[in-house]
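Give me structure tokens for this 543-residue protein.
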Amino acid sequence: AREGSPSPPAAPSVHTPDEDQLAAALFDWQDELTVARAPGRLDVMGGIADYGGSLVLQLPLALSCHVAAQLRPTPPGGEPTLSIVSLGGSLGVDRAAAFDMPLSDFAPGGTLLSLRAARGLFTDDTSRSWAAYVAGGLLALAHEHPTAAALMGVAPSNSSGPQSSGGGPQSGSKGPPPSLAVLVASEVPAGAGVSSSAALEVASMTALAAALQLSIPPRWVALLCQQVENQVVGAPCGVMDQMASALGRPRRLLSLVCRPAHLQPPLELPPNLRLWGVDSGIRHSVSGADYGTVRAAAFMGLALCIHREAQHGTTASAAPIHSASGDSTAAASRTAQAPDPTALAPGSGERYLCTMSASHFQGAHEQELPDYLPGAHFLKIGHQHMDTATTVLPSTRYPVKAATAHPIMENFRVEAFRAIMQGNPTSTSALLSLGELMFQSHASYSRVGLGSKGTDTIVGMVRRHISDALSKGVHPVLYGARITGGGSGGTVCILGAATEEGQAAVDAIAAEYHDATKHRPMVFAGSSPGAAAFGTLQVQRLT
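Here you go.
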């Protein structure tokens, strides 16, 4: 989403009479409901570098999305349907409260639609497009397990993921497949850059899988949810949001190397530190054109770097690009030095920018990359675009150099941030070093075109707090800040002291921002377990 006027803060979740009526008619309240919960997340470090294979650090927020699901008998002669109701404007103001579709729409002619082909089912009416996050998860499950596919009247042609267990409620049953009813209630604000979409996807898929008696590993749930957002919704996000929502733990930063999703031990927040998110009021969207352009530009840069290494070789003194599997192919070197045995040639497998060291990129590639490159020129060159979530458009001018540099340098910053955190920093110099890494990350977002006036204002207020404190010879209680997630607005992450003074400083910044913009920002604090740790609840009405 491009920068715009600040919007009013999200209203409290209030159920309208129409929503209450829709919800009351949705379920058979005498039968069991399956309830799942997934939190939003605060992007502490890493952000958009996830698609480049970076290490990312994510905090699961206290705010969450709850989803209830129930299988309901399909009336004799009727058609199985998917019915979804969203309560309290929880998915944004421009949306209908209810969505219904025949499940057979997912399998025209008896064959399951691909996730990409299903996008068209949700694009005709923008007020109902939110349902893609829920319904797309059911289709993803259908491609994984025959129990879910049976709801649509077909069996999947193959299973692309690890075999999930569970025979499901349809094993051995007769009559039409059951219908599905889903109720959504989310307190994660849409457009604030704290992963309302990932919370909805993860909570929905977790509830649907449990209602169908399927046991799917939480990591695979997250990966499937990412595919839903990429292919069905059409938002080219990385995987960190879904992984944090599925696998996060309270007061711990989920540590994830996004190649594609390698979990590392979580990073516990030192007791003297606290994290806050401050919403700028500028609506953020991963599906916005700016994010997609920057992401495509990074993969264009990756293709150019790989081609350059294959043509010119790389020396043993540098660390070149590695493949995701760790395999490597030697490239011929024009110099007298021996070629580095880990250099890559085109066609040897999946690659990530962040397997290239910052020093190697700066020494071997940065000066050779164009600042900007028209899409038509890249397509004419004939290099492979290795990103399935974006398309290179001939008429678009791509910021190749800055977009390629960002994930590589961000990965270095995140590694350094984690190393300092692991030492339980207490000195002012160490704490301000953490903050400096956050400020550098924020500046890099601006260089690639994903900054915003509102988030710059909040970050500038944190900078001023630090400089004012140091000029007075006192210790600051805020240490750093950065824009989060996909950028172009959304939320700023602030690192500070876990004290009353730290909280007061954040409250003062929120008040000052309101005075300057007339937007009263939401302040996100606290954390909670991810969907896997929460599990699911089986709820039945007492009689």
